[in-house]
Amino acid sequence: MILIDGKKAAAELREELKHEVEGLKAKYNKVPGLTVILIGDLTPSQIYVRNKEKSANEVGLKSEVLKYPDSVEEKTILEKIEELNKDETVSGILVQLPLPKHIDKQKVIETILPSKDVDGFHPMNVGNLSSGYESSVPCTPLGCYLLIKKVEPNLSGKKAVIIGRSNLNGKPMTQLLLKENCTVTITHSKTKDLKAECLEADIIVAAVGIPELVKGDWVKKDTIVIDVGINKIENGIVGDVDFDEVSKNAKALTPVPGGVGPMTIACLLKNTIECFKRSQI
Ligand code: GUN
Hints:
Layout: E1 2-3, H1 6-28, E2 33-39, H2 43-58, E3 62-68, H3 74-86, E4 92-95, H4 105-111, H5 123-131, H6 139-151, E5 159-163, H7 170-179, E6 183-187, H8 194-199, E7 203-206, E8 224-227, E9 231-233, E10 236-238, H9 243-246, E11 252-253, H10 260-279
Parallel strand pairs: 1-11, 2-3, 2-4, 5-6, 5-7, 7-8, 8-11
Antiparallel strand pairs: 9-10
The site of guanine has 7 residues, from strand 4 and helix 6.
């Protein structure tokens, strides 16, 4: 079994991006800039944002985090985004989710200029991705895609089963694999026989948020399994895949932690650099 090392893959990608930023600096005499907006004091969000900032600095991006209290008015955030949209030193804008209830998430997403939307959440980017045009691609599915390609560069004709239909993961993952000529099945909580679907799969991407859902006897021996889940249980964190069981059967598997997570952040940096490059044309 191949244990897919997301930490190592992310470190390699960051190294590539660091060289790319050096090249851009030499060419344009400026570096891509990422601004992250963090509202409230949720611990996971704070940890994510700290890691994003650290990684951005490591590859030489200009990085800024703007923090607001939970009570901040929606209008304040929208006005700040408008200001960042006009700021030429800002290549990418990310508003950390989830947001407090009184702030309309979709309004926030749609206020970010599509060309600075490093999350790929703006309807314009969602539409472009599904039409096969150039777009920002959400960081987590992009990271999953790059890990799958490392194990199997030629995905044409492979059967992929996605578990979970979220806008964040399942749907964009589908688009990325369709572009590679996979036959893609999207499954979800109302799917009749999930095990039977998984047993057909050459690739499984589990992104549903149910601890250790995917069992050893759901997986063929030549299947690549990508675990997007981060589930808190009594004694630690587990993914959506039963690691002990599936690692005995699958061809390749990502661990949790140390699989998809580090790649998500590296892909955010990649997206920021792509937004910068497109803005220089
Ligand atoms: N919160 C958890 N994951 C994400 C993500 O990919 N982007 C944003 N903006 N917030 C998140």
